[in-house]
Amino acid sequence: MKVHNLDHMVITANNLEKTIEFYTSVLGMELQTFSDERKALILGSQKINLHERGKALKPQAQNPLPGSADLCFITNTPHTTGYFTFDHLQYLYY
Q: In this structure, what are the phi and psi dihedrals at residue 14, rounded to the nearest 5 degrees?
């Protein structure tokens, strides 16, 4: 598998409104709201999707907690190939 680029990042927040206020007012990011009311923060060509604790959207991390983040990459390998196995976890948890 070869990663081409970062597609987006997801952060989980306790309070979506306060999180949006911080990132837009303090850091100057732009808020994007999708037709299904999902929210994202835009900074240049990068996007940070926002999930609220207990209301995370699918797909999501196994146990998303406030302050956590997950990264979504663009690859040349379809996710249905089952490329990752439990052996690969040694690189993620050390």
A: -70, -45
Given a contact cutoff of 8 angstroms between Cβ atoms, the answer to whether 44 and 65 are in contact is no
**pTM, entire model:** 0.70
pLDDT in tens, 7-41: 888 888 889 999 999 999 999 999 999 888 889 99
Residues 6+ apart with CB under 8 A from 63: none
8 A C-beta contact, residue 52 and residue 38: no
User: What does DSSP say about strands 3-13 and 46-52: parallel, antiparallel, or unpaired?
Assistant: parallel
Q: Where are the domains of the chain?
A: 3-91
Q: Which CATH number fits domain 3-91: 3.10.180.10, 1.10.630.10, 3.90.550.10, 1.10.443.10?
A: 3.10.180.10
pLDDT tens per residue, range 56-74? 666 666 666 777 777 777 8
